[in-house]
Amino acid sequence: MNEFIKDLGLLINAMLIATPPLLYAALGSCISERSGVVNIGIEGMMTVGAFTGAALCYFVPGAPWLAFVLAGVAGALVAVIHAFACITCNADQTISGTAINFYAPNPDSLPYIFLSHIYSLSTTLLSFVSVLPAQ
User: Fold this and answer.
1) Which residues, at least 6 apart from 96, have a Cβ–Cβ distance to it below 8 Å?
2) Distance between CA 64 and CA 96 in Å, rounded?
3) pTM here?
4) 14/19 Cα distance (integer angstroms)
5) What is the pLDDT of residue 59?
């Protein structure tokens, strides 16, 4: 019983730590929905901001407010990309937001795709597939 209480306390602690950012995202999504904007990419914008803030805190120690402000700027830049795609290019808001959610958690994915050679990538995939057991 003591172990159960300890695990329950850890679960409640983790829940209270993880809930506020999600509530802020939900609040922002409600506000954008009331204005007529379908902002599916809000999680991706938050991810870019969080990654930027964490990277700046790591590389520029002692400047947490700078990291906080630039994290907001990075998220706003992703929002500008979303606005450009939807307003100027007449893209669907849902598709643009989904694309933001696909690419935002992977800051290395696009540079890797552009900088890698198709031959080396296919060779790596073929060597990985050859190691898999046959059925």
Assistant:
1) 40, 41, 82, 85, 86
2) 31
3) 0.66
4) 8
5) 81
Distance between CA atoms of 99 and 40, rounded to whole angstroms? 9
Least confident of 12-21, 32-41, 56-65, 106-115: 106-115
pLDDT in tens, 38-58: 888 888 898 888 888 888 887
Closest CA to 48 of 60, 58, 59, 56: 56
Q: How far apart are CA 129 and CA 135, in angstroms?
A: 13
All residues at 6 or more sequence positions from 107 whose CB lies less than 8 Å from its CB, including other chains: 48, 51
Tokens of 90: 């007449």
- Contact, 61 vs 78, CB < 8 A? no
Structure tokens at 14: 């983790």
Average pLDDT over residues 84-103: 90
